[in-house]
From TrEMBL:
Residues 2-74 form the Archaeal Type IV pilin N-terminal domain. It comes from the Archaea. This is Type IV pilin N-terminal domain-containing protein. InterPro entries: Flagellin/pilin_N_arc, Pilin_N_archaeal. NCBIfam families: arch_flag_Nterm.
Length: 135
């Protein structure tokens, strides 16, 4: 009877170890410290439209680890894209609570979606921290 219990325990331990390894939950991810932070988006329609992204609270984040993707924005000449950024911190600096970045250009954001992503400095993995959809 004791032998059967030991065999079941060993089997469960081996299955848990294999699942951890194959699901990528092992040592590869131990060095990652995904930031926990809250961001807000403040959209101002006008000519030009602008979108202010503010770090409201949480962990400081290195500026080079964040990137923003914008889809659905169109410029006055009908082309898609959006590429004017003011208030951006210098690469390597820390983004802390209260930091703000403003997108503004002759673009229509009325159908845009914006995501703020964090790229791990240790791997190719990235995580979406916040998103905004046009009203």
């Amino acid at each position: 009877m004791v032998g059967v219990i030991l065999m079941v325990a060993i089997t469960v331990l081996l299955a848990a170890t294999a699942a951890t390894f194959f699901l990528g939950l092992g040592s590869e991810n131990l060095g990652q410290n995904t930031p926990q932070a809250a961001f807000t988006f403040d959209y101002e329609a006008g000519s030009p439209d602008s979108l202010i992204i503010e770090h409201r609270s949480g962990d400081s984040i290195r500026a080079g680890s964040l990137y923003i993707t914008v889809s659905g924005a169109s410029t006055a000449n009908g082309q898609h894209g959006f590429a004017s950024l003011s208030g951006a911190p210098a690469a390597g600096s820390e983004i802390t609570a209260g930091s703000r970045v403003t997108f503004s250009k002759a673009a229509d954001l009325s159908e845009a979606s914006v995501t703020l992503n964090w790229q791990s400095p240790d791997s190719d993995q990235s995580i979406q921290l916040a998103s905004w959809e046009a009203p």
